[in-house]
Amino acid sequence: MTTAHLDADVAVVGLGAMGSMSAWRLARAGARVLGFEQFGIAHDRGAAGGESRLFRMAYHEGPEYVPLLRRARELWGELAAASGRELFLPTGCLSIGLPDLPPMVNVRRSVTDHDLEHEVLAHDELASRYPQHRLHDGEIGIHDVAGGMLRPELAVLAAAQQARALGARLHEHTAVRAIEPGDGGVTVVTDEERYRVRRAVVTAGPWTRELVPDVAVTVKPIVLTWFAPADLSAYGPDRFPAFIRDTDGVHLFGCPVLDGMSVKCGYADVREPLPGARDLTRDLPDSALRPLSDAVRRFLPGLHPEPIRHNVYMDGYTADRTAVVGALPAAPSVVVLAGFSGHGFKMAPVFGSIAADLTLEGGTAFDVARMSPSRFDVAV
């Protein structure tokens, strides 16, 4: 495949969080970019949605993520400045739990190993400063000063708009049916056209297995709910930081009032995995919402425990909850970013940069070896 016959240098397949950021960073690096999205830009049928997402540097999943998070925070600022949109709200992020729980140990390691600005709040101080949370005996808080909230839909839209401003050609409502590596490049097949590019980046989120069938990603629903507070002022961003909590096997997270009327909460692993992304339904029985209501009733007594609204999103999960990031062993001209397991959005800009590095340079300065597709039997 010669350069004269190429439609672009790189095709980005899927323009959600990871894809829009990859298109932006690739275009910013000077690549000729084609992007494909089966829905519209900033749609609600993937992993990037819900009006707000947590950003935390003190990381429950492990201190090895902190270098990625540091760079991501810088890039969130760069994207906000370039787009003129408020994408990051610096509320801080509060982790709550018993100090010897593995997630809290990882938070402590994150802040100490990487010298992050933080506060450790003993039980009584935590209860006094943040009475919105009902605590168990012995629980502490770690306040991550650099944490906050992100605006996911606006972020995807901003990244796509920046990519277009830099020359990327993004095709909305254009489903990719196949990705065919070979002949020194990649052919991207849609219903209308066959596009020839030098390399492809697959960022299809929960839809990944439709294009890369052997990638070990399971589709899981993410249920988000909004609850009305009795005292609205007690849950504003100035008094109620974003939070993440592990108590008695309950993994609860949430954010302050951003819509003028409600606190958003989420609860991990409420529903069973889906056969595929096309099986998502947003019609939930009461039994599906009951764990969230029960958790709010137990831990956030100032909220009315019945949600005033809910929505359902989805993401791709790997068995080890570590993303798949890298070139496919059997097809090095195809880079895959998938399986972010419900905690990837905050790092989307840096993964977009990593996708650009891997695609244009063949490597990256960031340590993503543990995310290699080679740990699975992955083909196209």
From TrEMBL:
<dbReference type="InterPro" id="IPR036188">
    <property type="entry name" value="FAD/NAD-bd_sf"/>
</dbReference>
<keyword id="KW-0274">FAD</keyword>
<dbReference type="Pfam" id="PF01266">
    <property type="entry name" value="DAO"/>
</dbReference>
<dbReference type="InterPro" id="IPR006076">
    <property type="entry name" value="FAD-dep_OxRdtase"/>
</dbReference>
<protein>
    <submittedName>
        <fullName>N-methyl-L-tryptophan oxidase</fullName>
    </submittedName>
</protein>
<keyword id="KW-0560">Oxidoreductase</keyword>
<dbReference type="InterPro" id="IPR045170">
    <property type="entry name" value="MTOX"/>
</dbReference>
<keyword id="KW-0285">Flavoprotein</keyword>
<feature type="domain" description="FAD dependent oxidoreductase">
    <location>
        <begin position="9"/>
        <end position="358"/>
    </location>
</feature>
